[in-house]
Amino acid sequence: MATRYIANTPAEQKRMLETIGAGSIEDLLVAIPAKARLSRPLALPPALAETDLIRHMSAMAARNADAESFACFQGAGAYDHYVPSPINHLILRGEFFTAYTPYQPEASQGTLRTIYEYQTMIAELTGMDVANASIYDGASSLAEAALMAHAVTGRTEIVLARGVNPLYRRVVATYCEGPGIRLRDVPAPEGVLDPEAARKLVGGKTAALVVQSPNFYGCLEDVAAAAELAHAAGALLVVVSDPVNLGVLQAPGRLGADIVVGDGQGLGVPLSYGGPYLGVFAAKSELVRRMPGRLVGATVDRDGARGFVLTLQTREQHIRRAKATSNICTNVALCALMATIYLSTVGREGLVKVGELSTRKAHYAAERLTQVPGVSLRFAQPFFKEFTLRLPKPPDRVVARLAKQRILPGVPLKPFDRALGDCLLVAVTEKRTKAEIDAYADALATVLA
Amino acid sequence: MATRYIANTPAEQKRMLETIGAGSIEDLLVAIPAKARLSRPLALPPALAETDLIRHMSAMAARNADAESFACFQGAGAYDHYVPSPINHLILRGEFFTAYTPYQPEASQGTLRTIYEYQTMIAELTGMDVANASIYDGASSLAEAALMAHAVTGRTEIVLARGVNPLYRRVVATYCEGPGIRLRDVPAPEGVLDPEAARKLVGGKTAALVVQSPNFYGCLEDVAAAAELAHAAGALLVVVSDPVNLGVLQAPGRLGADIVVGDGQGLGVPLSYGGPYLGVFAAKSELVRRMPGRLVGATVDRDGARGFVLTLQTREQHIRRAKATSNICTNVALCALMATIYLSTVGREGLVKVGELSTRKAHYAAERLTQVPGVSLRFAQPFFKEFTLRLPKPPDRVVARLAKQRILPGVPLKPFDRALGDCLLVAVTEKRTKAEIDAYADALATVLA
Amino acid sequence: MSAYDKLVFELSSPGRIGYSLPESDVPGDRTARDLVPAKYLRAESPALPEVSEFDVVRHYSRLSRLNYGVDTHFYPLGSCTMKYNPKINEDMARLAGFARLHPLAAPAAAQGALALMHELAGMLAEISGMDAVSLQPAAGAQGELAGVLMIRAYHLARGEQRTKVLIPDSAHGTNPASTALAGYDVVEVKSLPNGEVDIADLDKHLGTDVAAFMITVPNTLGMFEPRIVEITELCHAKGAQVYMDGANFNAILGITRPGDLGFDVCHFNLHKTFTTPHGGGGPGAGPVGVKAHLEPFLPAPVVVKHGEAYDLDWKRPKSIGKLQAFWGNFGMLVRAYAYIRTMGGDGLRSVSDNAVLNANYVMKRLEQDYDVAVPGPCMHECVLSARRQKKQGVTATDIAKRLLDLGFYAPSTYFPLIVEEALMIEPTETESKDTLDLFCDAMIQIARESASSPDVMHEAPVTTPVRRLDQTRAAREPDLKWTSRAPRG
Amino acid sequence: MSAYDKLVFELSSPGRIGYSLPESDVPGDRTARDLVPAKYLRAESPALPEVSEFDVVRHYSRLSRLNYGVDTHFYPLGSCTMKYNPKINEDMARLAGFARLHPLAAPAAAQGALALMHELAGMLAEISGMDAVSLQPAAGAQGELAGVLMIRAYHLARGEQRTKVLIPDSAHGTNPASTALAGYDVVEVKSLPNGEVDIADLDKHLGTDVAAFMITVPNTLGMFEPRIVEITELCHAKGAQVYMDGANFNAILGITRPGDLGFDVCHFNLHKTFTTPHGGGGPGAGPVGVKAHLEPFLPAPVVVKHGEAYDLDWKRPKSIGKLQAFWGNFGMLVRAYAYIRTMGGDGLRSVSDNAVLNANYVMKRLEQDYDVAVPGPCMHECVLSARRQKKQGVTATDIAKRLLDLGFYAPSTYFPLIVEEALMIEPTETESKDTLDLFCDAMIQIARESASSPDVMHEAPVTTPVRRLDQTRAAREPDLKWTSRAPRG
Ligand SMILES: Cc1ncc(COP(=O)(O)O)c(C=O)c1O
Ligand SMILES: Cc1ncc(COP(=O)(O)O)c(C=O)c1O
Predict the structure, then answer these.
(1) Which residue of A has its CA nearest to D54?
(2) Do the chains contact at A49 and D22, CB–CB below 8 Å?
């Protein structure tokens, strides 16, 4: 069975077996009990040659309504932001792409340096002291934050604002199952945290209060007020934040956050039907020894030259095992590299511009769309690049209709909250053009007419 | 004017000007007479941001009927062969992609080694002693061969078989204008060189006889007979050959060729609307000091280690100037790299398979298509992967009609030879599937019905 | 020439730009200050680097050159299956229909993506002999968490309050970590000197409070547990579930299947067995397969097929919930799908045959010069012990560093913990005999040097961009981000 | 670790495969032996390497690491404009509508490609002040050939039999080579000590037998000819055409235009000025622009626009003919188009401003330690002479080699021929002041070392994969291909 991915030829196999002193490869498999052996070939589709594979997979890909062929107004935690062209070229360099966790730092300075840069940039954006090398995605980052708050405070409840992405909340629930942490939800009748309700729920058992801003509905939350509330109860404040917005929006660290998490997908990571994304995790320095995930630190080599290593590893599973701060091992280093290259490329000025363009276009879109008869903003709150519309017809039907005009108008909220069954969540990034927004508004008007 | 491709900031410009002792950049341009200065900005379309550029150029690209979206049976010197996936990834490595001619060999061993490999592979395929590092394309390679034959023999006529690609012939004519070399054409009434006519034209003035096999019409030429004929007259035999066929077809060197040229586009180089392609040039070793283009040779370094350099450079324009064997400087090294990676990847067995599949599918296609009423093979000659059909309706109209079914049925021959106004040249590579061939035959039957 | 030693911040020049963004094309000239109340806004722009696009390209190209990767170096990191990552997989993952598809696309607008997931899950089920597979876990460790939570939910659903999970002392660190995270007490089971599970010790611990036994097959010594079927039967007899850590799946493709061995749950590491790239530490993908009795507990949603249409099924009342916001590391799934479709069943079998052959060849060639942790034949990797070299003053770390100088990445060291001075070598099937011979020659040279000139080992590495690094200083005075005031070195 | 030293042939193992091809899906099992008479067939398969796909990837990845490229190293190779090659251009060139379009697609099926060519030709005409541009030439040298052939055709059409072309002694080698190829006698015109054309000498040669004067602007000493307008007028007065070698166009974008200076023909090097990659030696693209009186002679076919439709016009009876089989190096045209559309007119002007600034900065910083060929200000590049160092026993070559050790590629050396021990430095606008400073520091260090320890120069390079190579041996015993019998070294 010759395939281009296997090196040994029959002749080489023979020579190797001779060296080993075995008659056949079968002889090497003697430890596997006969009754446990698979007695037939695997029933898989036949092998495809490269050209056939391309044809087959291109046909599959063509059955998806992607953001290249469609004008994408979908958000809810994943956004069609601009991806500068160098990113893909640079991450594909084999020395980055095909290396693993930098266990041998002397032969991994490329990876280690990019992670150190990444940690620096994330700390700067979030306004926190330290950031780790990444968690899987925003949701699992939030789950890790909940576990960490539990570990740090010894308390057993996590209070979540209703504005936290409900998909994230589900992941938190999964992770909190084992430790028996209880989740409590603060309603958001006006689209933002209800402070009265929050005050009732946050108390001596509260390990952390979690808010997201802009929240799932697009509304900006009063993070400083939430911080005060949490801290008054001796709880930590965990803020979920989309780092791509932080060129313009205030750093959560400046507003009192103890832990900031979020998804860095907007920082140059492709939409890719939901993953891999980039779990951002940053905290105050006093919490560093309870942080999950890898950390890279600067040090010096034997000759005094600057060098970088994985550090504070005694937090991690490969050393602390059952007592580790987290079970994470493989993370999303390559996505962190994308974000690092992204942030280097857009730079100080570019990230501000991304935010400025997004918010300006989002406000224009909100105005245009709410001019369509029957369409209104669901919440009277300030927003940034995303907002919730109330529609006079079922949103999922609107979505299906607009798809025919190559418009992906947003995310219907019904699956997330029955009370918002008539709502559509609309995201507008800097990539959307006036022409696309106008076409959307016109198409919506037609569909609703 | 800040752009992402220019490094200097205004502050840096200022500091640099201070060092230089100039007040402004204008001060550095004093040598340019005022009356020669452009007194207005260049009238070019406004600068486009990256996302706008992508949108604009994608729209342009979408207006072309490419071999990804269409079943491509076009040939006539450019073919839709399989391009193994590693090629594009490897050529994009910056160390290859952004280097230039390896003038400093110690810092260019990557390029030099790949060229040495390339020369070896081309020599092996063509059956010649030496191959150069590349000429622009097949046509200009042939033109260089004509010049070289002229220089070697001191004779002033080049005799070309009619089966030589007429586009190549035109390029030869352009290059022969200056030296005043006369071109003489041997007819091919039966699709191949007419030996009688050839004998009359090849004589004491003949620098070289040029044949192509398979020729422009797809027919296989008797190269050995042509060699005998040329050599009997003291002329060189130049053979135009498509190297991707040479896994299966006989090496021209074995048939008596003195110079072999051709286009290596089939060896992993994209169709790209006609270029850049890969001018292959190989010759007998006694001719090496008259060869055009760069040559890489093996040698040793100061410590005795193997190393590679540009060699026999006294042939070249930067040394010999007006007396150089050719004016070529920049060549198509990257396309030669593609071919080298291609030939390494398909390897000994794969190149045979490419040829076997192509010829088998071509013969199947010829059978299927000639079953369509009114359609016949124009020439009763053996062919390999390409053949000439005679159609009962104007071929250009057939092409237009089949395009609607996403079939590119071939190249109408009328523009090349009025006598073949009813002919369509059809190429079938290993990439074409039975389904595509059948669909083509069915569509053709419908159009011609 | 000394190695490149810049951080991107050190290239920054105020006002230099690397981005390209259009001017606003919507009416008006309102800025964020006009649209958003000030209290939500940042006062100053963040201190990100200010560099040109070319600065970015050259900087990261240069940084990459400080790394060893599989594409450039033999990378025998045991337990990690550092095999070749096919380039065609990258091309497929970048098709716009996959790479630019939003996760909340209506299922009708994502039929291709859902079909791919459904088919991949089916193929993994066939490969593992499991009844159902969830593609959601982001990596092996998350697969473990999902698996153990399903076991927990299963017991709870049956009204059983089991509190312990048994794990061999040879296990990877994520096994106890994930298990603890799932709320279990972890109990270590001893291994026999030959690395096999001490069945007597296992039996001793197997009480009615034991929810599961979790074991890696082949184990972390590269050996197939010969009594594995006995073990799974024993566990089942005590009402415990059995979990297989599938990190070492590269050894057994088409040869044996966890489902047939009696396992209830197993996870895959697509970034190991199924060629998705390691990316300098991730992302990976850690699908988890289960037997039918655990199927109701799978993470939600589940990709389902109704007639010809694919959908996401959210109505999973017994589900353990979600692990990621969306459906899994889809980009990695595309690559793994491309790989399995390229290999077919015979091809995958051949993968394991050759992975095993290569590991045994290395083991054989090195058995004179190093102590072998367990006598062979091994499976896809072999574990050596440098205990002999240790007596000469040369540790596994020293050997690893010297290998770097000789042009190879290092094996995994000090894992598994039960082997003294462990060197865990996994060559994979994609490496050629020539490469293995060069590596073995280097290892033999090192063994000789350890005897004759141990100082060479202690000095190593000398050819890398930096020499041995001060780990203690890094941990004592953590310097985890760059500041303009205090550049190091 | 010593540098990688394999050729792909040396990795070969009989029977190993790297390709992936489907089995035949057409009926029958006939092979070439059945379909094609034996005399046309090869008896034995060619001796190509037999390696796996991974062998290929690792081998060429490793080989690439033996190179310096612009992406990794400062590459101040004068006259070559080694600027940053934007990555977006690569993405655009790979759009299937461009990369997979057959050249003989009916014009109706290639409107996008033809539109791109038409617009690019128009933009180049505007940039150069020419009336028409052909995109067909494959590189600068072919542009020269085309240009001179058009001049020839022009004279012939007017019934004039001119036989000479005048070229300054400072010209690039392709200028005389292309001119000779076009059938002209080349006559060298002297340069003044300051590198300018000796107008008296020019005038002396300018007889009625002179077809053209060909000159590089700015010249190969990096200087703008201050009397260029006078020169073109003088030539025209004598009935000669004037050709501008546009290799140095990076100096004058938006500042001045050959058309306005009086030139009749000029070529562009898209791989220099317009950021198409150099690819280790090519491909490039060498469009040629002409004034209206030469337009009938342009290479055929010409891209034309009728209403909204684009077409290839083949009816060009006076055309000099074709230069390539098809329409030009289209892939390069796509990249150049993307670049010009990205920059716009202001952007291009800024390119030249900064290219000139950078060159002058380098010249200034080095003028103490090296002799400057001509006093400044220079344009986009500066030429130094190592004649001072030569007296210390250090040549331009030695300096170049030492630069390699210090982490820089070398300037062009020994060009132009009229400068003793020439070092031609072209920094380009894409390099930052920081990089220029590092380079200048290195050059100054070298100047000092030349005085204090010339042996360091003679030994250099010592950090490269190989040391200085034996050129004489290479030329005396040409070894131009690998043979299994006699591997070298
Ligand atoms: C045996 C074993 N189990 C589990 C894991 C954890 O997998 P992941 O890193 O994908 O989370 C690893 C990874 O190295 C492993 O080797
Ligand atoms: C001044 C000058 N003229 C002409 C050329 C020839 O151009 P090309 O290499 O594109 O053929 C060069 C190339 O280096 C050059 O520098």
Answers:
(1) A5
(2) yes
